[in-house]
Each structure stands twice: as structure tokens, then as C-alpha cells.
Specification:
Length: 445
């Protein structure tokens, strides 16, 4: 009896040791969560540096509102913008307009550099962030134009804090800095940035730091994307206004969200709506429109906000449709997305799968050749609602295209914020191990 119990305990311990040792070492600073705090569907484009500090490119009005909806408390704009601009066809407010929007949304808004100051790779910018961070209520969303320069400034603030404050977490040195920025697809290996890194960390200048492998360089212009490997990228729901930029990069776009109907049943997924929770279903149990009905909308508001949160003419404080996201009166309408792509020269492919899978070998076999062919053509953006389904398939497709193994795939998906292990998303774990080699994995299943 006793011996048996001892054996069981021993086996459990061995198992724990095994599971921990098989967990990949990540190039992120912390184990990342699913992107987007409390609202991955609204904020999938926010890049997590730490749970309290996320970075982004220049924000639209909607993105500022969504930041509030999803749990951010503060916004930091690196630059002072005196002029509005466009991101594709989306309007980008100037700093004054952004301050007004942030006020309506209940967000603190801070601008770091003075008007006309474009010198981002500077000790001065790091100094200013060091002074401002303690005054901000986290989590903080920091942005610049393309999520590039603000990544540098924020990580340098952390490197300086690591150097001067023994309590500071998570710690970052030059090695971690170059590994992390490489997996984010951002290249700071130029000599002027290497000099600043050396000065801030107090370490020797790294002569040949690891470089990102994201390709092509134009991906920076579509900053919301998450680089996976070389030509593979993921995204959540893209907007109609993004299409001109997707054209500029010349992505092949694979959409994995469900279409208008599946096997004769209506299957429109949800669209994101200002001041409306993300978790209400599109249809009720009888198949009637539920999410976008006035009753459900009124019951699903996130906070008692001003009607101006929706627009200056709105009579309610919640939104009921989202055309910019290919939404109709019911939900996400894939036909609208396809039609929008038809008027561009982009290649658009619809390979639907439900958000909770199952992610089986059978379904991947059906899509595999299409994925690999897209990969051979050039840059591929695999999108769904938050980048999870897309992430699973893009990581596997990239692994197959470039001969990567199971350990690489598990590391890469974890760095994107999704855990795949024998315990978590075990169907994806099985799917990966059916195609990818690893010493331990096959026996374990
Ligand atoms: C580095 O941190 C110290 C201590 O907090 C601070 O006084 C200094 O201004 C920081 N340096 C930079 C470049 O931000
Ligand atoms: C865009 O990519 C397609 C392949 O998907 C290729 O045939 C086409 O030449 C590319 N266009 C440009 C302008 O590079």
C-alpha cells in the first residue's frame, strides 16, 4: 500500500519535472498573455512587452476607445502630432484630437516628445519616459507611428531601470533586448541604436546582435500584424480601411473565420462594438439574431459612458453595427470581406474553422497544400478574430515550409501569447506533433 503510494508520488514528481523541462525557453521578457488584455478581439494588435506596458502604432479614434474598453488606463504618445494622417483609409487624429478622445474615453493621455522633436533614439526620450511612467495608472498603451520607435524607447527605459533599481522586474540586458526585438520583427541592430543600447545598459556594444527574420521589410507599414517567421504573419480581424496597406506589402490573406453559413446553419461570428462586451453570441438558441438586438446591446454595455463615446450624434452609449470590420446587422459577414478584396489585386483565401476547433489532422490536411502554396508565393497574413486560429496554422505552416521542429513551434506559439502543451490546447499539440519532429514528443502521446 505504502510502496504503491510512494511510487505514485514519485511518478507525479517525475512528470512535473519532465513537463517543466520540456517547456521552451522564450525570447520574450515574460510569459506573454493572449494579446489584448480583457478584449483580444478589440486589441489583438497591441504588443505586450510586460503585462503593464504594451506598444502600438499611431491610433485611430476607435482604437483609443477600444483601449478603454479592453482595460488600458493610460496612453503615451511618443510624438506630438500637429497634423492628422491616414493609416490606409483610416483617419488618424492629431495629438489635440487624440487628447479629447482620450478624455471622453476616461484615459489619461501623455505626449512624450515636444512638437517637432523626432529624435527617438535618444537618452532624452528615455529620460522623459522614466519620469512619466510612475505617474501613470497601468496598464499603459504606448505608441508611435508604427510601433517601432516606441518599442525601443520603452525597452531602454526598462534597461535603465534594470541597471539602477535592483528591485525592477522584469530585468532586461542587451542580450535579452536583441532577442526580444528580433522575435517582434523589429531591427535595432544599426550602429546608432547599438550605441544607445550600450550607453543605457552600461554593457559593451554588441557587435553582431541577432537580427529579426521578418520579411519583407514593408511589413513595418502594417504594424498591427504579428510576425511569425520570415514571410508568415498573423492578425485578428482586419478592417476595410487596411486594404491599401495590405496591398502595399502584397500579402496573400488567409481568413480562418467562419463564413455566413456552415452546413446550412447561419454561422456569422461577432463583430467588435464600442462599449459592448465581446462575449455575447451572434444568435440565440433558436437561431435568431441576438448580439446586435437592441435588448442584448443595452444589457451588454461595458461602462456607463457618455454618448459621445459612440459619436457626436449618437442617442445611446453603445454601438450596434461595425461596417468597417465587414459587419452587417447580424455579425461578421465574410461575403463583405471577400467583396472588398475582390476590388484589390490581393489574393484572398477563405479557409474557415471554428474558433475552438477542433484542430485536427483531418482539417489541416484539407488546408495544407493551400497554405504551403501561399507560403511559396510571398508574404502571408493569416487572420481570424484575434490571431489564435491563425497563429496555430501559421506556426505549423511556417515550420513545414522551413523544416522547423516541434520545439520551435511550441516556443513560437508561446511567444505569440498562446500556450500549446499536452495540457493546454492538447488538440493543437497533437496536430503539431503529427507533422513535426522532436525527440520526446511522439512517445508522450
Ligand atoms: C535611469 O534611471 C535613473 C534612476 O531612476 C534616472 O535618474 C535616470 O534619469 C535614468 N536615465 C535615463 C537615461 O532615463
Ligand atoms: C504580389 O504577389 C503576387 C503573388 O501572390 C505576385 O504574383 C505579384 O507579382 C506581386 N505583386 C507585386 C507588385 O509585387
Amino acid at each position: 500500500m505504502h510502496i504503491r503510494r510512494t511510487v505514485v508520488i514519485l511518478l507525479v514528481n517525475l512528470y512535473i519535472v519532465f513537463v517543466n523541462s520540456s517547456r521552451p525557453e522564450l525570447d520574450t521578457l515574460v510569459k506573454r498573455g493572449v494579446p489584448g488584455l480583457e478584449s483580444p478581439k478589440k486589441l489583438w494588435w497591441a504588443k505586450e512587452l510586460t503585462p503593464d506596458l504594451h506598444v502600438a502604432g499611431r491610433l485611430t479614434e476607435r482604437q483609443l476607445m477600444y483601449a478603454a474598453d479592453g482595460g488600458f488606463n493610460s496612453i503615451v504618445s511618443l510624438y506630438h502630432y500637429t497634423e492628422s494622417k491616414r493609416f490606409g483609409a483610416e483617419y488618424l487624429p492629431d495629438t489635440k484630437e487624440a487628447e479629447t478622445i482620450a478624455r471622453i474615453a476616461g484615459l489619461r493621455h501623455v505626449t512624450l516628445l515636444d512638437e517637432g522633436d523626432k529624435d527617438w533614439a535618444s537618452i532624452e526620450a528615455v529620460d522623459r519616459l522614466t519620469a512619466v511612467i510612475p505617474t501613470l495608472k497601468p496598464p499603459v498603451l504606448l505608441h508611435c507611428n508604427r510601433a517601432y520607435t516606441i518599442t525601443f524607447v520603452t525597452l531602454m527605459y526598462m534597461a535603465n531601470a534594470t541597471r539602477f533599481d535592483p528591485e525592477f522586474e522584469p530585468k532586461i540586458d542587451s542580450d535579452k533586448f536583441y532577442r526580444f526585438t528580433a522575435i517582434m520583427g523589429t531591427d535595432f541592430t544599426m550602429s546608432f541604436t547599438r550605441e544607445v543600447v550600450a550607453e543605457i545598459t552600461g554593457e559593451d556594444e554588441v557587435e553582431r546582435p541577432i537580427k529579426p527574420n521578418a520579411d519583407p521589410y514593408e511589413w513595418y507599414d502594417y504594424w498591427p500584424a504579428h510576425p511569425v517567421y520570415k514571410n508568415w504573419y498573423t492578425a485578428g480581424q482586419i478592417r476595410k480601411g487596411h486594404l491599401p496597406i495590405l496591398e502595399h506589402v502584397n500579402f496573400t490573406v488567409i481568413n480562418m473565420r467562419l463564413g455566413v453559413s456552415t452546413d446550412g446553419k447561419p454561422t456569422k461570428e461577432m463583430v467588435t462594438l464600442r462599449n459592448v462586451r465581446d462575449d455575447t453570441p451572434t444568435y440565440d438558441s433558436n437561431g435568431n439574431v441576438y448580439r446586435q438586438s437592441p435588448k442584448s446591446l443595452a444589457e451588454s454595455v461595458i461602462a456607463p459612458r457618455d454618448n459621445r463615446y459612440i459619436s457626436s450624434e449618437s442617442e445611446v452609449n453603445y454601438e450596434s453595427t461595425n461596417r468597417g470590420e465587414f459587419g452587417d446587422e447580424e455579425g461578421f459577414n465574410e461575403d463583405l470581406e471577400r467583396a472588398a478584396f475582390d476590388s484589390t489585386c490581393l489574393k484572398y483565401i477563405h479557409l474557415p474553422i471554428a474558433s475552438d476547433g477542433p484542430f485536427t489532422r483531418e482539417i489541416f490536411e484539407k488546408y495544407k497544400e493551400t497554405f504551403l502554396e501561399a507560403g511559396r508565393r510571398g508574404p502571408v497574413l493569416v487572420h481570424c478574430a484575434v490571431g489564435k486560429r491563425g497563429g496555430f496554422f501559421a506556426v505549423l505552416a511556417a515550420a513545414l515550409q522551413y523544416g522547423k521542429d516541434m520545439d520551435w513551434a511550441l516556443k513560437r506559439i508561446a511567444e505569440l501569447g498562446f500556450e500549446v502543451s499536452p495540457q493546454k490546447h492538447s488538440d493543437v499539440y497533437k496536430l503539431f506533433s503529427a507533422y513535426l519532429n522532436s525527440k520526446n514528443v511522439k512517445e508522450e502521446l
